[in-house]
Automatic annotation (TrEMBL):
Top-level taxon in the UniProt lineage: Eukaryota
Organism: Solanum chilense
A single GO molecular function term of this UniProt record: protein serine/threonine kinase activator activity
Polar residues: bias regions: 16-30
Protein name per UniProt: Protein kinase domain-containing protein
Lineage: Eukaryota, Viridiplantae, Streptophyta, Embryophyta, Tracheophyta
Domain Protein kinase: residue ranges: 88-404
Amino acid sequence: MKKNQNPYNPYLPKENGSTSFENGSTSSPASIDPPSNAPDPVPSFASLPLQFDSNRSSLSMRFARLSTSENQQVRQPIITDPHNQDQYLLTSDIGSFSHGSGAVFKALYTEHRPDSEITAHSRWVTLKIIDMNDNESESRDLWRQGKTGLLDTPYGKIIGSRKIFSVVTNIFSDNDELLCVVLPYMSEGSLRYILSTRPQKKLSEEFIFVVLKQVLIGLRDEIHVEFNPKVHKTLNAGDIFVHFDDATQEISIKLAYEVSVYDSETQNQGNNRYAPFMNPKNIFRWGAAPEVYEKQNEGKSGPKSDIWLFGITALELVYGDLPVRNRVDFNYIVDEIRKKKKLPNSLKKMMIKRDGRFKEVMRNVVNRKKRVFSEEFEEIILACLRENPVNRPSADQLLNAPFFCDSNDRFKQYVLNGRN
């Protein structure tokens, strides 16, 4: 059935039914150099196989059915920016956002050069897509974030947007009104996704400071800036993304923020494996700082509430899934860490002891006096989890702590060892 186009859609101007902007303007985008691992010249669209990890959203399901259809008249999965005719060939379903309302794809971007003799180059990008008719409120939020949020910069530590545009297309069904956000492609996905592929589901201390140092630099230089401070609000392991450049053999770690946030875990890796504990995808809510916990306090968030979440993220990385069923469990863990001024060997065993289960069997294990983690790492977490936000350090102060040093090469090898 053909959709009725919404004449009051705020994202579609009256002239041509679409709009776009890049770097805060409506001018044509600057040329983007291709990565060495992107095909050049652009291959035939038919030669690129479609891949789908899971049916995440209605768009993903419709697109998956489209890609597997035996109908010879199947539409090509290409989105064309109506502003400048740049093309985005969707190749893989790699995530979702807005509670599954939107889909995230790996896409091959090709710049349109109608009057140039130079062959158009291509590169991989991440494309977030949402149906504006079916998700009006989420679309408005995404559009606002794209216009007021951070732009992507080559050497920044925050994943910013490269472009946002709306388009009417027939890819999924007739006359879909889609809002599209172009982001840099992060090849390895989020850190939570990476950990979900490893047997122990956690990161060793020697790698944690490599990750957290990059996060702190992003917070200090791009979010908690003195002249115009912003607040991240959702900082967690699922917002930390990793990219490996095949050309330079370098690894980069960046923090997603607002418009660039999405869930890179598949359904099979997601909600079910966390039961009966609280889902870490919502850890920024149930693990929020005391001053912002619960809905009525959300407006009180600030840079120091981000620092609290930074400490909770460190706990998630070093322990894996947190054994928390409710806020009471969460507060108990925080209080015990503060009281003993050191981290336990296992949070799960600590909770077993609290509940009186297998008390005699576990006593010698739980009550170990030997320090499992370095004193420098424990000091970082204790500082972040101070009750009064005034007493928590800033991102800049944390960067000057003894804990942070360089071990990037070993972390790179850890990431690459998990590739299939």
